[in-house]
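User: quick one - fold this with calcium ion bound?
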Amino acid sequence: MCPRAREQLSQTGTEAEPTAGYTSEMPRLLVIEDDATIGSTLSSALAANGYTVTLCATGRAGMAAARADAPDLVLLDLGLPDVDGLFVCRELRGMLPSAVIVVLTARDAQLDIVSGLESGADDYLVKPFVVIELLARIRAHLRRSSGTAAESASIPLQFGSLRVDIASRRVLVGGAEVELRAREFDLLARFAREPSVAIRREELMADVWDSNWFGSTKTLDVHVAALRRRLRLAAEAAGGDALSTLPEIVTLRGHGYRMDTAPAGS
Ligand code: CA
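Assistant: Sure. Structure tokens for the protein plus calcium ion:
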């Protein structure tokens, strides 16, 4: 059996206020790590940040815990004493299709990283890593995956003449369907989830492309330009007030983009 880390927040003298936006259902994390020091450091840091954490020291125990607990996110060390970490990764991916899997690898193990991603991992961290960075990645992953879960039940979002139906991946402008490429749709869906909010370039790249993106973010600008063009053309074709009520994707120099839902002059 794998120990579950105590929730330390409730142990500190004053009554902890529930954090806004959190419900009683805290994300469940599974840590599979045979190094006792790393394992306990990780699980106490995660528990201190409000996660429910189960720590397992072997691959077999980790797979059993995954089956029993259905965690939202798994931190998986690839160098395990009993089974090949990549095998564990593939097994976890099979039994937890929607969970986030982050593999932990030794320094410079490029082959491990590639194999891990090919085995179904969503992200990786190279040891030694900074806990702050790990926490930031976990938050980003859980935010993204909860967005995905909410999407399936979501009703279409309407912004002026623009209608975005994330569940069916359909976009309408002035009532007419617009054909978007997959990444253009993902980008629009990302804007639609947070209208009027300034979103950093790095965050868009991480959410729409991949958190392991090493290339130029020029790709982002190209896709935004194409998205704007397609939406504008559709609005022009639809006529009426479709163009004047079309949300505008605004460039924020040195920061990112923001989708304004009430364009100036409308
Ligand atoms: Ca290890």
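One thing worth noting: Residues 34-35, 77, 79-80 surround calcium ion (CB under 6 Å).
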